């Protein structure tokens, strides 16, 4: 293949998934690792991608926050699988907190399908997740079952339909739960979970502080993507749930930090 054809292939993969691994391009195109890295270097020089450990991700401002509707159309099957796998961690009678995001919304749907859903206490700053939970609680009540306890924080609404800021942080300050489930705009082993929204970062830190166990639920397109601020370092992640095996460097970093890696089937 000509260089521009190889580079177009890389760009197509990045556009479809948010990032690409060198090893995957080597396998797909049957070329050397050195050739792929050279092509990525050329695309970086053109400002079309950003280099990350093991591959490349879409170029973009770390402060740019996509709207919820735009994110909800990306990788729905991966998010469904991640949500179902993460929900398996929740036991009858557990209390849990959910951050905003489309992957945690998929987790919310999986929670409503659990036999022990009515026994749960769920705290969230996600407006879509809260609506889904309230509707499921009404359905449970209509069937003669006890409804779960649903708590929605206050706060200012973000483009990703999360409630953030001082009001949200204050409402979380004295709460304690078994599980905190977090989505993220991006993740690297060095920075941990990141978001482009500073107030969302502060609110997510408050969510982290409520939990005994922190679970990151992120699809593979988030690997190597940067946000303006980190809100949960890798060392504070107890479980990371995703749908694809991460690169060796990320796997090693998770092992060293003591985080359990669960790949959604």
TrEMBL record:
PROSITE patterns: HTH_DEOR_1, HTH_DEOR_2. Keywords: DNA-binding, Transcription, Transcription regulation. InterPro entries: Carb_Metab_HTH_regulators, DeoR-like_C, DeoR_HTH, NagB/RpiA_transferase-like, Tscrpt_reg_HTH_DeoR_CS, WH-like_DNA-bd_sf, WH_DNA-bd_sf. The keyword Phosphoprotein does not apply. Pfam families: DeoRC, HTH_DeoR. It comes from the Bacteria. Residues 3-58 form the HTH deoR-type domain. GO terms for molecular function: DNA binding; DNA-binding transcription factor activity. SUPFAM superfamilies: NagB/RpiA/CoA transferase-like, Winged helix' DNA-binding domain. This is DeoR/GlpR transcriptional regulator.
């Amino acid at each position: 293949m000509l260089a521009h054809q190889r580079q177009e292939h890389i760009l197509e993969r990045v556009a479809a998934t948010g990032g690409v691994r060198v090893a995957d391009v080597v396998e797909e195109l049957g070329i050397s690792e050195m050739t792929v890295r050279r092509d990525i270097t050329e695309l970086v020089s053109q400002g079309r991608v950003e280099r990350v450990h093991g591959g490349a991700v879409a170029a973009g401002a770390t402060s740019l926050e996509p709207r919820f509707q735009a994110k909800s159309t990306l990788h729905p099957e991966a998010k469904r699988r991640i949500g179902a796998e993460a929900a398996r961690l929740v036991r009858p009678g557990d209390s849990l907190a959910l951050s905003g995001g489309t992957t945690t919304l998929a987790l919310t749907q999986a929670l409503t399908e659990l036999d022990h859903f009515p026994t749960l206490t769920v705290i969230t700053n996600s407006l879509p997740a809260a609506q889904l939970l309230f509707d499921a609680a009404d359905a449970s009540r209509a069937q003669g079952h006890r409804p779960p306890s649903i708590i929605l924080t206050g706060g200012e609404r973000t483009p990703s339909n999360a409630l953030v800021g001082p009001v949200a942080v204050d409402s979380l300050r004295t709460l304690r739960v078994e599980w905190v489930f977090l989505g993220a705009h991006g993740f690297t082993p060095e920075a941990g979970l990141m978001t482009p929204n500073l107030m969302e970062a502060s609110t997510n830190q408050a969510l982290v502080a409520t939990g005994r166990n922190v679970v990151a639920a992120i699809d593979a397109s988030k690997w190597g993507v940067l946000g303006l601020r980190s809100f949960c370092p890798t060392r504070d992640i107890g479980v990371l749930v995703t749908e694809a095996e991460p690169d060796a460097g990320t796997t090693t970093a998770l092992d060293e930090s003591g985080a359990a890696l669960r790949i959604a089937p």
